[in-house]
Amino acid sequence: MNLDEKLKKLRQLIKEKESLVVAFSGGVDSSIIAKIAHEELGNNSVAVTIDSDTFSRRELELSKQIAGEIGIAHQIIRASELTDYNFVQNRADRCYFCKKEEIRGLKVVATQYGFKHIAFGVNVSDFSEHRPGIQALNEEGFSQPLVEAGIGKDIMACLAKEIGLSNYNLPSTTCLASRIPYGNPITAEKLVQVEKAESFLYSLGIIQSRVRNYGDLARIEVYENEIDRVVENRKEILSRLKDAGFTYVTLDLEGYRSGSMNEVL
Q: Which of 6, 115, 168, 227 is 20 to 30 Å from the Cα of 83, by its Cα?
């Protein structure tokens, strides 16, 4: 199917739900679902953002902005994965327990609104990566309309642009916990360190970064074409990351790649 055919199928899948809670991060995938849900279902749709310890303040503000642009009802609920021992231990199945916490909050909202379905922005490309959170969704039987419509990362930006989303070219985002190596316990302090470091890199105009937290050491990943910018601002970056609590700061010469922490698996 071409782009238009996949978009048509996606609209039909969402329309058939009649009422829908959208798990909404403000990223491209969930924004596509929220946009179409609002267009097809109107007031029978709501976007829900889980404001947790692993969700950056910048992404929270973005979710508010994009929901406002779409016009969909937007609800923010507070949750904390740090109360879950299984999550904090940071095993390779960490995301399963994180998703379970998110699901509990979404179910509460669905009950409040009397809505029948809950949808997540999983796409077909996600199945080629280590995504234990998908198992949690499958156990609940939640909707994955992008998967059902056969939509993957290859056309995501084009589809988002086609339906008028301003964040169509937004780089992929993941929770802050993904910066901490498996087996190293997740703490609020480590998450704050990462957020401060990445926020500073963003302020320098670096579009996409990951600051991997190895305790005393920070490993910076950026796109290859932005490595020079990191080097040019080396002294300032070093100062700010040390202020954030790191003793050593390194630059990964391989550059940013999604899921680099999974290379050890």
A: 115
